[in-house]
Structures are given as structure tokens and as C-alpha cells.
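TL;DR need C-alpha cells for one chain.
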Amino acid sequence: MIDGADFLANRFFHLDLPPDRPWTDHPDVPGRPAEGVIDPLSISIFRHVSVLTENDPVPDLYADFAVFIDTTGVFGGEFGTGSRLACSGSMWDEVWFEVLVDPQGSVRGVDLGMEFHDLDLLVVAYDVVDRATGALLYSVGDRIGRDENRRIDLHQDGDLYYRLKLLKGWRTEPDPHTWELAFRNVYSLQGEFIDPEWFEASLVLKAFLAEPTCDAGGIPWLAIFGLETADEGPDGQSGVLFDLQRGLLFFPEHMPRPFAMPAEVYAANVQGSYAFDWEQSLLPYYLQPELYDWRTNPQDTSVGNFRFEVTMAREDRSD
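>> reply
TL;DR here they are.
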């Protein structure tokens, strides 16, 4: 069983928050222009190494980074107009990642391949290029080996710092803008290489109902939440909802906050298949916007009103 509050909050990330992204409370201002796309080959991500003991491996990189919370999406000006210093540090590990793309082939986010700790600090730098020509429009953050002349004298002591964008901060010091960079609609299925012939999933409302897998009128919760089609696929980038190879559940992209969407979103998920009546539905009583509130610690203090029940068997990979 997988609780609805147990989404993977520290693995999948957007790199910015364009103004046209739906259901974003704190979009970038002015934000990435419509003609701009993120160059996937330019992305660099690092994790701050805060304490180093004699048993720890040597960090990948010793470099002075000044880390900024960027609310602009363009990182302009000497220190990033509309941005503010979050911290600085000199020891960093480079983070492996996989680029997630949208149906048009543009970068929509990154998968870091593992769930990082709540107290890990992650930073990023990347270039934004023209969609049509590939020409550089601007850089978000500085790249080592290219932007030495852009470093700043942060403390006015002669030590020069590269500027990086905060991708994930400490949970103990939440920032509403950075908080929204994380995906909160991806779940672990608690296993990998799942045999599709032995896979079955249901979404259950935690209430005393005769049929907890369905809403009033017999509509399956999976359908209402846009999950009725259980496709096997290599990633979550092109409409794949259940990635059985990696053991991941992706809610549809139009549902970034699955348990706190407007009524019309749930209605659209079942349009043409079921007669959904919001006034008769149980759903309004069990939505949980607090799961996505930056002022709370949802995975510590909240329990979901829904849970996933999964039956599965792993593929025989002995060959």
C-alpha cells in the first residue's frame, strides 16, 4: 500500500516556473520567454557537501558557489534581479540526472534517479536558447570552465564565487518559489522491473464504504484522477502513467497536485466515459491542499485520504 501523501518530493524537479505553466502559485516574473527552451546539454546539478569526515569520499568538486533563489527565470543583473542569496559553499558533488521532455521534445524537468534527503541542498545552472535557431538567449547560473569572468566578489575579500540557482533547499528553511520546482505527483511502486501481466493497481479512499475504489455512481477513483490507463513504458515523459520498469507512478502532467485540483480537472478526466457530478461526488470532502503547501511538512505530518493498493510480480531477469 502506498499512501497518497508519500509522493517522491526530492527526486523530480522543474528547472524554472514559466508564467504559462498551469496551477503555479509562484511563477517566475518575467519568466522564460515563449521562444526560449532549456538546452539539455548545458544542465549541471550539484549537491552541497556540508560536512566532511575522514570516512567520507572526497567531493567531486572544490569551488566557491554563491547560491541564489531565483524568482525571475532569467537570472539577470549582477546578482540576479529579483533573486536573493540563499547560501554559499565550497564542497560539491556532481549529481547524475536524466532529462524529462515534453511531447514537443523540450525540457520539462529532470529525474535525479534517487530520492534525496530533506536536508540536502541542490543547485543548478543551465542555458536558455532560442527554440528555432538554438542561439543562446541567456544563462541561468555560471558554468565552470566557461564563466570565470562572471564570478562575483561575494564578501568583498577578493574570493570569487560562481553563481548557481537553488534547485532544492533545506526543508527547515522552505521558500515558496523553490518549493514549487519539485514534482509532487510521482510515486514509487515499491519495486522495479514489474511484470505487466501480474500488475494491478487501484486507488482507495480511506473511508468506510462498501466500494472504496469508486466514487458515487460507481466511477473508479483511478479514472477520476486520470490513471485508468496503466501503460508500461521506459519513462514518464510521453503519457506513460505506470512505468513498470523503473517502478514509478506518474500522475498526468495536467495534475501537478493530484489531491487538490479544481473540480473541472477531475470532470475532464472522465468526460466521455462516465457521468461525473461534482455535487454528488465524495471528492470535495477528501481533497487535501495541505499536502502541497510550502508552509507544512507534508511527508512528516500528513497522512493521505487516499492510498494506492498494488499487486505485482517482478519480471524474471535471469537471462
